[in-house]
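Progress narrative, work stream C.
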Amino acid sequence: MMNATQKSSWLTKEAGEAQREWFQIDATGLTLGRLASRIALVLRGKHKATYTPNVDMGDFVIVLNAGGVKLTGTKPDKKLYQHHTLYPGGIRTRLAKDVLADNPERAIQEAVWGMLPKGPLGRRIIKKLKIYKTDKHDHAAQQPRVLQISNPGAPVEKN
């Protein structure tokens, strides 16, 4: 039996004990929502056996070619991105196709943020996401592993 001051090693896992890895994802041709859900899973650490909901156990994720991400259906013309300038009447609204053309990093960042917990834990987790518009990045020293994401929503070509 354990007394109240001892903690079982399997019961709790502290963030300092987490083994962090770096993953690299090529977003070319992937659907935004499916990509974001996979990124959020890796950032939270849900792919690990030691996952704990209240501890940051996740890995770092590098997203390359963010400009190649796509939206399906009528979302490019109907989905809106809004932000407020903090001045009276300062709400700004843009269509998704304009955001993807100008700043695809923002579209991916907001999609992933929507899938993470809000609060101090979520703010700590989102900092491990690195998004680049092209295939050049500054994290070669971390030797990231390539994470393959299939696109099950893509149409199947029949011969």
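Work stream C, second folded protein:
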Amino acid sequence: MAITTDHSRAVADGAHSHGVVPAGSRAERKTSFDLADIPVPTGREEEWRFSPVARLQPLFGEEHGAGGVLTTVVEAPEAKVEIVGKDDPRLGTTGKPGDRTAVTAWNAAAEATVVTLPAEAVATDVTSVRVEGATKDLTAQHLLVHAEHHAEGVVVIDHRGDATLNQTVEIVVDEGAHLTVVSVQDWADGAVHASSHRARIGRDAKLKHVVVTFGGDVVRLTPDATFTGEGGEVEMVGLYFADADQHQEHRLFVDHAVPRCKSRVTYKGALQGAGAHVVWVGDVLIQAEAEGTDTYELNRNLVLTDGARADSVPNLEIETGEIEGAGHASATGRFDDEQLFYLMARGIPEVDARRLVVRGFFAELIDEIGVPSVEERLLASIEAELEKSMSAITGVAE
């Protein structure tokens, strides 16, 4: 058994890096399909203590519409797309909602969009699910992505426009299937978005779950992954870039409930501008039955300006000593002035040197996404964000 922990800390003005915070077992967290079981948060609860509860308040109510977003699916030739009612037996099999926005989204959505990759099928193209804000009306949405046994494919969920959206995304990866799900939050500045991603990973199945967050006023994603069969693997990758007054929050939970499964979590983010706030919480539970588990999670945050804040909290709970390995690392730091000086000393202008440092920070994860169209958009988004900070540094108006 190998257990490693790295709580390196490089705290900038306005940035905070946290070690492990004992907050009770994730196995004991209340989950339910019933709104009455999960009350409206006050902000004092562990799962809400970093969140701007007042800005999320509209999502806590029971009344949601369905017309605030337009959903368009362009499926791979091998994929099947359906619109089903809430009574469809395939819905809800990934587990019960675990917080107020999740249970509200579950109850408020009247129907669901289901994308299925049939058994043994290998998709020859990406399936694209475009979710575009049509109005600011409060909206609930339910998506299910199901890879049947030994299927392979990629599904990209692309969020754009302006919306107030409460969302459920269920992901089912059956025995031997290989599935990549990419969720891109490229909202307009005023959007408010909470999304609960719940994944179930079967025997010898593999899920790559990618989150890319740039836009919006408040974006809060809670991806959960549970293993239901031995030999399962999950890779959770996240990239985010917060600007002034944006709140971006990613709370992950990996439940090792069966033996001999593997999880890898790597999230990186950059932030700039007064009031920019990013939150990353990574919870991993290794249950008593989960012998032979191999897990590691990593979070890194790069603070580009004063007035920005990053909260990073890795939590690892182990109920058995018979594991392959378990560890986590978290660090938040300012822009590396020594690295900048090194580049400038070799004749690279400051603006270009800063771009190189930030691109290098993200480069490894961008290459891991594996979807060229998303990688290109991500590079363009990073460039656009850097233009803002470069203009502030040089005094040039945007």
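The two ends are 54 Å apart (CA to CA). No further action is required on this item.
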